[in-house]
Amino acid sequence: MKNYKNLFVIAVIVAANVCIANAQETLKIVSYNVLYGLKKDSVNIDRFANFAEDWKPDVIALEEMNGYTQKTLEQLGQRIGHDYVLQSKEDGFPVAITSKYPLVNFRKVTENMWHSYIYAKIKGIHFFVIHFSPFSYEKRLKEVTDILAQVNEIPSNEPILIMGDFNSLDISDKDKYGKEVLDAMKQSEQKHDHIRNLHNGAIDYSVLGKLHEAGFKDTYRLLHKEFESSVPTFKDGNGNIKQKNTGHPKRIDFIWANSVAASRVTKSGIVKNEYTHYISDHYPTFIELKLSK
């Protein structure tokens, strides 16, 4: 009888250890365009810190970290429990990444990119953090082609993620972009010579189409059939709080995964809560990913 009791205790301990191990095998990842470096506003930075404390991401990919330096990014990282951080540059519209875990073989690329991108490997996952041109689909086509050329240097049996603000629409959402959206885009091009986002007068889907062609999966669509916008929020592009989240709902923020990474995605979505309504003019996207054993 004593032996049975001992075996039962051992079984319970083993089961508990298995549960702990399984809990440690998931990586929570957020991608977030935070609007001009959180406007360098202490109240807004508090909102972001509260969001991070509440959501507890292991890795955050950040776009529009305007005004931050590597040093001030490190300070923000320490506040949210991310000791490993990297920013692509200090001028213009930088991208950045913060993590609880070390960044391996990282690099910062500004050449041939409208803004820039970061590559890093974290816990065996290859990360590309991007922010594509807001003004030209042709430039975005060049940017995505450049990213995919870098991806092709990575062994295809390793997990790869491409995330950020793509400033592009996906064909899976096509039925949500009707005449009102097209007319608004046409009016924008008529007013501004530097804006050329339409392709032969039609909404362009070719940029994200390149990712589909390369075998990447839209992690939101892996687990969701319904449409969910990443813009607008209750904050406008100048950082002012709005009474309503007015504007044409669009999904331009994505986390794309190659087939290896996609097979490990357990959760995905767009985070809309009392913090993210007011932090930025974009909502953050997230995934949870199983790590390899």
Task: Describe this protein's structure.
The longest helix has 22 residues, at 2-23. The chain has a single domain (26-290), classed as Deoxyribonuclease I, Chain A, CATH 3.60.10. Helix 5 (137-151) packs parallel to helix 7 (206-213). It is α+β, with helices and mostly antiparallel strands and 293 residues long. The relative contact order is 0.15. 34% of the residues lie in helices and 24% in strands. The strands form 3 sheets. A 6-stranded mixed β-sheet has the order 3-4-2-1-14-13. The protein has a 6-stranded mixed β-sheet with strand order 5-6-7-8-12-11. The model has no long low-confidence stretch (mean pLDDT 93).
How would the blueprint of this fold be written?
Elements: H1 2-23, E1 26-33, H2 35-38, H3 42-55, E2 59-63, H4 70-79, E3 84-87, E4 95-99, E5 104-109, E6 117-122, E7 125-131, H5 137-151, E8 160-165, H6 179-191, E9 198-199, E10 202-203, H7 206-213, E11 217-218, H8 219-223, E12 253-257, H9 259-262, E13 265-270, H10 276-279, E14 285-290
Helix pairs in contact: 5-7
InterPro entries: Endo/exonu/phosph_ase_sf, Endo/exonuclease/phosphatase, GPI-anchor_lipid_remodeler
Pfam families: Exo_endo_phos (PF03372)
Protein name: Endonuclease/exonuclease/phosphatase family protein
